[in-house]
Every structure is written in structure tokens, then in C-alpha cells.
């Protein structure tokens, strides 16, 4: 499992873009994790799935609401990662009204989740291999803090916890 001090895995995530800009076309665009985190401070949180109850009612809204506070604490970007495809993450972004506040990144085949060792097997519930619920502060591609949730929990990966760590 990834630990504080480790570098994020050199993987590619996908992001759905509604409009063209900065070299991105409309539709799914590849996001090279190493390049996208270089020289930046990222508040990253991951969760089991788009449109699921806790994720939609608590996890994403907390980060959207805390956007300005994260920026004031020196965070360049907020990332939400889930084992879903880019189209689902794009639809969820519209539903959650994340706008430019939270980048909704798809880990379609769980490559990032597997590489971090932060997976959750929900095969018995019809969801397959997913990402565990966690948050981390990442500086220049390295993990500074890691808040990994226990099974079925939402206690330490919330926006308030990570924001306090970003301010420290």
C-alpha cells in the first residue's frame, strides 16, 4: 500500500471535458498523473463509485464547498478519483456541480487503485473491484498525508480533515 513519502504511481487517468481548452478536446482526455502533479499541491480524494449515497451526499459536496479554503491553504487543485469511466465521471460532475473546483478523474480499469494498493473488492455487491475511500495531500507527486478509511466508514477522508492537514 502507498505510504506517506511515496511518489504517486506513474499511471494515466481519464477526464471528461465539456469544452475545448488548453489542448484538451471535448470528451475523455488522458491525464498523466506524474505530469499533472509536478510542481503542484493536490488535495486528492478517492471513493468507491459515482452516484453512490455517501459519495454523492457527503464526500464530493464537502470538497466543492471547501474549494476556497483549500486554495487559501496553498492547494492548487482538488481531485476526485473513482473506478468509473470518464463519461460517468463527467455526468457526475454535472450532477454535483463541481465546475472547475474539483477535477473528476476516472480510473476506469482500476489501474491507479491497484498501483496504490488502495482497492476495495465489492464483487459480492455487484460492483467489482473499486477504490477504497481515502484522501491524501500530494506535493510535487509525493504523498504528504494519507487518510485511509476502514470498510464502510466515512470518518477521516472528509474535506475538513484534509483541509486541516493542508493548513498545518
UniProtKB/TrEMBL annotation:
UniProt EC number: 1.11.1.27
Gene3D superfamilies: Glutaredoxin
GO BP: any one term: cellular response to oxidative stress
GO molecular function: thioredoxin peroxidase activity
Oxidoreductase in keyword set: yes
Reaction(s) the record says it catalyses: a hydroperoxide + 2 glutathione = an alcohol + glutathione disulfide + H2O
GO cellular component terms attached to this protein's record: cytoplasm
Keyword Repeat (UniProt): no
Active-site feature positions: 55 (cysteine sulfenic acid (-soh) intermediate)
Keyword vocabulary terms for this entry: Antioxidant, Oxidoreductase, Peroxidase, Redox-active center
Thioredoxin domain residues: 2-168
Enzyme class: oxidoreductase
Family designation: Belongs to the peroxiredoxin family. Prx5 subfamily.
Function as written in the Swiss-Prot or TrEMBL entry: Thiol-specific peroxidase that catalyzes the reduction of hydrogen peroxide and organic hydroperoxides to water and alcohols, respectively. Plays a role in cell protection against oxidative stress by detoxifying peroxides.
Protein name: Glutathione-dependent peroxiredoxin
Amino acid at each position: 500500500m502507498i505510504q506517506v513519502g511515496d511518489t504517486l504511481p506513474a499511471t494515466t487517468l481519464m477526464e471528461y471535458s465539456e469544452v475545448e481548452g488548453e489542448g484538451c478536446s471535448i470528451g475523455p482526455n488522458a491525464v498523466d498523473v506524474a505530469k499533472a502533479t509536478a510542481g503542484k499541491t493536490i488535495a486528492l480524494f478517492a471513493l468507491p463509485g459515482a452516484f453512490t449515497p455517501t459519495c454523492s451526499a457527503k464526500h464530493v459536496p464537502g470538497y466543492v464547498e471547501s474549494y476556497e479554503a483549500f486554495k487559501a491553504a496553498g492547494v492548487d487543485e482538488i481531485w476526485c478519483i473513482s473506478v468509473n469511466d470518464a463519461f460517468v465521471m463527467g455526468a457526475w460532475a454535472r450532477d454535483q456541480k463541481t465546475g472547475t473546483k474539483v477535477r473528476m478523474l476516472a480510473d476506469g480499469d482500476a489501474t491507479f487503485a491497484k498501483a496504490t494498493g488502495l482497492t476495495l473488492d465489492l464483487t459480492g455487491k455487484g460492483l467489482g473491484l473499486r477504490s477504497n475511500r481515502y484522501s491524501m495531500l500530494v506535493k510535487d507527486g509525493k504523498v504528504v498525508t494519507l487518510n485511509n478509511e476502514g470498510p464502510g466508514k466515512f470518518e477521516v477522508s472528509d474535506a475538513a480533515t484534509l483541509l486541516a492537514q493542508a493548513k498545518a
